Backbone:
């Protein structure tokens, strides 16, 4: 499949371009938020940064499943318009507090938590909304390109934020983020015709339990969720670890921290472009990427200096994105449409909701032991869960590993491949 195939569809093209602007603002605010907590409101406290990150993702753990019900029941366009407007308002409030010099640590904590509530509602609706912008055969490509817009913004946002924080102050960065929400609002108002009408779930009691029962009977979904959640809890706390490495281990300033975030974004951008070409992401994609991610995160922990650390962040970012995009695309492609919002919300609840557990722990390790060990803990935990999940899948699903001297060099044959093979064998020949 061509990398940019989904951009040939007008509705998706509008959404893609608007998302770039909005995501640049979001990444700028994230960098400014972490730096303010670390350097202005505390004395280089990685624990405080970890608490801020935890509060930002805690609502997903608390309300994620119910947010999925909203995504399955309500008009997703109207839901997204509401969430974008609310996040814009929160950014304006925090900008005023910072610019006027009245900001306190608890203000940042409150902002992080309120933003987390809105994000918990926004994420499942946003992800399922993408499926209405392109034909079903383009879904994996659209998800990969959506990650590309996110990571292109991640490449630009932190670098701009690092300079902006140093030149004009963090309050103006929050204000710029507020302005960036105008673009997705305009895009959603312009988008009229959809490729697929929204398949809303019937409004009834027990919708969350219905979603949980559906997941319980899908071991492939369970494996993806477990692996991604453990990696998220221990390995993906880069808001904490990169800031600590830049400030404490290497003695660098805000612009250097922004540069490190951008280096990792180069990797995630490359990973998202590779994901856009992948037509059939599966469990093996997630497990294999997790093993490679753990190897490179371990290398980050052992990096001898600032520049070697920066370079290793690039391949680390590639496999971070492969894990997240592979999991997201597999869940969307192989989940019943009327339950897709709830499945994605529960996945996000476990994936992002694991961060409130891991972020303070990783922050504590960075502060009391060393920033290097905060990366080492993530590498070890990610490797263990990938190996355990892989061994379980090989045994439970009777998966066979096949090697070849030609690309792709090795492949796996499991229940889905065997079923597809039997289907082709039984089809009448033309």
Residues:
């Amino acid at each position: 499949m061509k990398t940019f195939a989904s951009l040939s569809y007008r509705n998706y093209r509008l959404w893609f371009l608007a998302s770039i602007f909005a995501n640049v603002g979001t990444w700028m605010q994230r960098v400014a938020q972490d730096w303010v907590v670390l350097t202005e409101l505390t004395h280089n406290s990685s624990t405080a940064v970890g608490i801020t990150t935890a509060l930002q993702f805690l609502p997903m753990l608390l309300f994620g499943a119910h947010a999925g019900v909203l995504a399955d029941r309500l008009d997703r366009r109207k839901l997204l318009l509401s969430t974008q407007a609310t996040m814009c308002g929160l950014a304006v409030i925090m900008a005023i507090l910072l610019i006027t010099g009245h900001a306190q640590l608890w203000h940042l904590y409150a902002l992080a938590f309120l933003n987390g509530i809105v994000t918990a509602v926004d994420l499942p609706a946003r992800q399922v909304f993408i499926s209405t912008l392109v034909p079903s055969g383009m879904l994996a490509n659209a998800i990969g390109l959506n990650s590309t817009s996110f990571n292109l913004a991640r490449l630009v946002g932190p670098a701009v934020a690092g300079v902006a924080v140093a030149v004009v102050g963090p309050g103006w960065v929050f204000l710029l983020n507020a302005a960036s929400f105008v673009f997705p609002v305009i895009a959603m108002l312009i988008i009229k015709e959809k490729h697929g009408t929204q398949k809303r779930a019937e409004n009834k009691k027990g919708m969350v339990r219905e979603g949980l029962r559906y997941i319980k009977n899908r071991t492939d979904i369970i494996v993806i969720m477990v692996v991604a959640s453990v990696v998220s809890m221990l390995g993906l706390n880069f808001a904490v670890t990169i800031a600590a490495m830049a400030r404490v281990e290497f003695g660098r300033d805000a612009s250097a921290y922004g540069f490190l975030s951008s280096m990792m974004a180069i990797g995630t951008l490359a990973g998202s472009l590779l994901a856009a070409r992948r037509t059939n992401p599966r469990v093996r994609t997630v497990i294999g990427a997790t093993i490679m991610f753990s190897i490179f995160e371990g290398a980050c922990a052992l990096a001898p200096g600032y520049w070697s650390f920066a370079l290793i962040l690039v391949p680390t970012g590639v496999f971070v994105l492969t894990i997240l995009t592979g999991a997201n695309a597999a869940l969307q492609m192989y989940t019943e449409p009327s339950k897709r919002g709830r499945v994605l919300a529960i996945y996000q609840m476990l994936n992002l909701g694991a961060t409130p557990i891991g972020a303070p722990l990783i922050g504590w390790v960075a502060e009391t032991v060393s920033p290097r060990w905060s990366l080492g803990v993530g590498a070890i935990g990610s490797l263990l869960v990938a190996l355990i999940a892989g061994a379980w899948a090989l045994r439970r699903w009777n998966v066979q590993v096949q090697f070849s001297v030609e690309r792709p060099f090795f492949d796996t044959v499991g229940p889905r491949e065997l079923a597809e093979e039997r289907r082709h064998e039984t089809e009448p020949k033309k």
